[in-house]
Protein: AMP-dependent synthetase and ligase
Organism: Chroococcidiopsis thermalis
Amino acid sequence: MKQLSLEQIVNCGVDRQTAIAILPQVERWLAALPAVECWQQLTRHILKPDCPFALHELLYETTFSDWDASQKPAPAWFPSQEEIESTNIAALMHQLQIASYREFHAWSVQNRDRFWEMTIQRLGIRFRQKYTQIVDLSRGVEFPQWLVNARFNIVESCFQAPENSPAIVFQQDGVLSTMTYGELHALSNRVANGLVDWGFRPGDAIAIAMPMTAESVAIYLGIIKAGCVVVSIADSFAANEIAVRLRITQAKAIFTQDYIQRGSKQLPLYTKVIDADAPKAVVLSLDISVSGTLRSGDLAWQKFLSSNERFDALATASEAYTNILFSSGTTGEPKAIPWTQTTPLKCAVDGHLHQDIHPGDVVAWSTNLGWMMGPWLIYASLINRATIALYYDAPTERGFGQFIQAARVNMLGVVPSLVSIWKTTACMQGLDWSAIKAFSSTGECSNPQDMLFLMSLAGYKPIIEYCGGTEIGGAYITGTLVQPAAPATFTTPALGLDFIILEGDRPTNKGELFIIPPSIGLSTTLLNKDHHHVYFADTPSLPSAVRAGLSDQFPNQPVTPQVNPPLLSLRRHGDWIEHLPNGYYRACGRVDDTMNLGGIKVSAVEIEQVLNSVAGIYQTAAIAVSPPEGGPSQLVIFAVVAPDRQQDKATLKTQLQKAIASQLNPLFKIYDLAIVDALPRTASNKVMRRALRDRASSTSVFNK
């Protein structure tokens, strides 16, 4: 029998009189109700957001104390029938007369062309010339052609909401402001006209290195309206990293800002752009004017902007590039991944179905245009006729939570390490987040305890775990609002695509995940690497049952000896996934040496190149290690150092951290430094990072 004592509740930080009042009711529910019903009663009537989180943990663990451990965390949110019926997924299921979600997902991958056509029609995507065929697979799934013969500009589909509807709500200097769809449309037109007036032509690459602001959203949309290509660069990058991205893309101009305001600090940005030897720049200023301090050829924002608020967006083919983003591999140079006109459709459809974004919803995600979730936020919000919520300061403090409250955010996206900060500092306690209907988490592996904490902040709302990549345009595995949500677990492959988990070439419940293409959103080219080599070369063979099923999905495609093999290709992604007995999934990190730190992918080589230049360092190996209880990976450095530095570990760690912050990214934090005599290497002299990872995981690195 499940029992609790008064002292257990008081020890959670609950006032004794309150504990005396709630204990009898809690005991009755624990004794009389099944675990799921008991938990629902507790979350509705006892566990309010202002309760100490320790009480939430105690009651969750007690309620599910007899939960089968092999099933991993018990669900902490269960949708009511009313909540299910209100979702976009339910609307599509009713239209198709499909009874269960599992059947719906199976239908979406067995009828991929019809799935994408239905969702494109549902979102009202605007075409100047409609497609003649949803997908042409005559070259195989590695090179699909989506929306054959279509001509359109995807930005036009971002402006279907009424002009007076709020497109962006933002907070700067403590003031909540709104930009309507009409105002955003006009400002993006002024940007497009400004580019034409400055002599830029369709296809030119134009970089953006700015915080996520109302202006940067308008700039992003204006560049694409003009038929140019956005080069996305995170504002946190050091000058040399900005320079690499400008060089790879041959960018002809850059939009930037004089500095970034973080609390009382002003972090220089324009000077980093200058140090990167950037092409001519348009500079926004937080001051009244910076025109007197600009390089020759650069323009202040107000001087660049055209006064013409009308612009006819350039219609192009579906495969035309709109955005170049970057994702690190393991070679030291980031992969340059082009997004085409169709990639935003993946963003919008995922947002429509998985995050369940509706017209008028307010969507917040602390991100940047340099990472895929920045463009994702634009398309998933605007194409679904929702409102983007942007907070201009750091999301780590209470001010961000107050903004979420004031803006009445309905869908809040997070990175797990950010939630961990909120939990440690208790900075979000006591806020009214009742408007939130769902959270979504991406960027790194989640910790179940932290995700339970996040759910508790809004009176237990679901978390849509969302894992994919820049080269996918969204997720390959995620959750829904029609399935119970268990902390830190996924419930389903994304609608419209599927995957298989293999150990070697054998299906398994825990192993490397391979995507079964095709899907809108999946990249087909890289600017600076061999796309086939990165994603398709030497992938395992499909099991015969899957091969037969995949062939059946495309009965109208030509089948020849040349076409049939690529039609059945698996696509490498590099994630290690566990399929749980209850049908849910758990992310177990990366297969290769690409690390995920604070939601940002970076290769070990990039970090090591920076650290190896520090005085007294002979060699380093950078690895990411997940805590035993799960959660975001932590950066651990193994270093071979000069004899006179071996006794000064703390100082050396500080120096290495400064090197990473100044030359790579200040968001990458060293968790631990291990000084070693030598690095383990293979016969071909490659560092055995897996051995180091195993060593770190088996020691007391997380029990310091």
Remarks:
- The radius of gyration is 26 Å.
- The mean pLDDT is 90.
- The chain has 24 helices and 33 strands.
